[in-house]
Specification:
two-stranded antiparallel ribbon; ten-stranded mixed β-sheet; binds zinc ion; Alkaline Phosphatase, subunit A; Alkaline_phosphatase_AS; alpha/beta; metal ion binding; 3 domains; Alkaline phosphatase; metal-binding; globular; magnesium
Length: about 500
């Protein structure tokens, strides 16, 4: 294996010692072998106990992209204090497990390698979707297996439908960047339901907003295959379910809006929520007497964390939890349904509490009604000081302190970060926070709530798995992310 850094080896050794209590070969294969041996030893739950009374017909896999324990817990605390409620993912699932997330090329996975692990059950290099580094495809995806069993397949996400996690249901590519190709593979795969963003990869190059490199019109191709095609919430609500056997809904040019924007900014209100998409998907999928496999992704929890935008993270996690609630309600009426909720990795090392104080104030984010992404877009249209302060007052409901103003106006708000300290610490920081205003706003927001961030990228901490339904006790324990689809296959028989 190439590109194994000394750091990875050291991490691998520590990991190996922690897991096995012994030091094996200090190479990358050693890391994988040690971990896998351990996983086999601790993955104790097998089918056969009390919850097995129903056979599994339907499987709903819900993935919160970047949703580690902290991401869910902060949303839970916010929901308790502001909305007087609880997250169903933290309170309604009896069976819980913890999974490792490392990829074949790194201790820290990206969403493509993690999607491959969760949907196909094997490790690959970061950036690759359902393919090994040598180009081989050792296993079918859960989506492909469901189709082979005569079941319907649904894919619902808030990101582009061609983005890494949803693509892991149906695509095989060497690079997640090949979104033109991924869109064509979706057409070839023919899911029963596909809802998300990403219209730009389905319309010809000559059309406004297209990102395709050719003039293929995939929307027309879907129509030729008998698909109902919808582009907004109203069209989605008005479909005739009896007459709809296959449907694709593309509700945004690129990713769909953050939930905090969808709820509060007029121009995004024509987009359906993740829960609404999930509900409609289930109505269409349940028509198949052989059952279905549905993957639902809360895809922008990750994006909010990359940008250190805590309020957007909270609102997208609550929106994801609302989709889980829709799945749970369905499961109550259809007990032959297994629900598995997990994450592909944690993003940004989010923490409740930071610095030296024993203090956090999550409700300080209560009045923030627009994402940093939206604020940056508005600031780029008019970056005068008065306009920026007006935007903050209007959309964030706060008056900045003198210290916060000093930070925000220390540099030109629309400039790339040229702060030598930050650049030396985080060379790619502009990729995540876009410009100085993006960085300063994330600092202001996080400092007010005392929310901390260890990284701008993903982290390697294990993530939880929550399961309910027939045989869901086999998801208890500590194991590897590649075991998740294996366990689903086991309950499918
Ligand atoms: Zn991800």
């Amino acid at each position: 294996m190439k590109k194994i850094s000394a750091t990875l080896i050291i991490f691998g050794l520590i990991f190996g010692i922690m897991l096995c209590g012994c030091v094996n070969k200090a190479n990358s294969e050693g890391i994988t072998q040690n971990t896998n041996t351990y996983i086999k030893e601790v993955s104790f739950s097998k089918i056969g106990s009390n919850e097995s009374k129903h056979k599994v017909k339907n499987v709903i896999l819900l993935i919160g992209d970047g949703m580690g324990v902290t991401q869910a817990y902060i949303a839970e605390r916010y929901k308790q204090e502001v909305e007087n409620g609880n997250l169903v993912i933290l309170t309604k699932f009896k069976n819980k497990g913890l999974i490792t997330t490392y990829s074949e090329s790194s201790e820290i996975t990206d969403s493509a390698a993690a999607g491959t692990a969760l949907l196909s059950g094997y490790k690959t290099y970061n950036g690759m979707i359902n393919m090994k580094p040598d180009g081989s495809i050792p296993k079918k995806t859960l989506g492909e297996l469901a189709k082979k069993m005569g079941k319907s397949v649904g894919i619902v996400t808030t990101t582009r439908i061609t983005h890494a996690t949803p693509a892991s249901v149906y695509a095989h590519v060497k690079s997640r960047e090949e979104e033109d190709e991924i869109a064509e593979q979706l057409l070839e795969f023919e899911p029963t339901v596909a809802f998300g963003g990403g219209l730009e990869y389905f319309i010809p190059k000559d059309m406004k907003d297209s990102k395709r490199k050719d003039n293929k019109n995939l929307i027309e191709e879907f129509k030729k295959k008998g698909y109902v095609v919808v582009f907004n919430k109203k069209e989605l609500e008005n479909i005739d379910i009896n007459k709809t056997n296959k449907i694709i809904g593309l509700f945004a040019k690129s990713h769909m809006a953050y939930e905090v924007d969808r709820e509060n900014i007029d121009k995004y209100k024509d987009q359906p929520s993740l829960a609404e998409m999930t509900e409609m998907a289930l109505k269409i999928l349940e028509k198949n007497p052989k059952g279905f496999f549905l993957m639902v992704e809360g895809g922008r929890i990750d994006h909010a964390c990359h940008a250190h935008d805590a309020k957007s993270e909270i609102m997208d996690t609550i929106a994801f939890d609302n989709a889980v609630k829709v799945a749970l309600d369905f499961q109550k009426k259809h007990p032959d349904t297994l629900i598995v909720v997990t994450a592909d990795h944690e993003t940004a090392g989010m923490s409740v509490g930071t610095g030296t104080e024993y203090y956090a104030n999550i409700t300080a984010l209560k009045n923030i009604n627009a994402s940093i992404e939206y604020m940056i877009k508005e600031i780029s249209k008019n970056s005068t000081k008065e306009n920026i302060l007006r935007l903050i007052k209007e959309h964030w409901g706060i008056e900045l302190t003198d210290d916060e103003k000093a930070l925000l106006f220390k540099k030109s708000p629309t400039s790339k970060i040229n702060d030598s300290y930050l650049l030396s610490k985080y060379p790619k920081i502009n990729k995540y926070v876009r410009n100085w205003a993006g960085f300063a706003l994330s600092e202001i927001e996080s400092r007010r709530a005392h929310i901390g961030w260890a990284s701008f990228a993903h982290t390697a901490v294990p993530v939880p798995v929550y399961a309910i339904g027939p045989n869901s006790e086999i998801f208890n324990g500590f194991y590897d992310n590649t075991e998740v689809p294996e366990k689903i296959k086991e309950v499918w028989g």
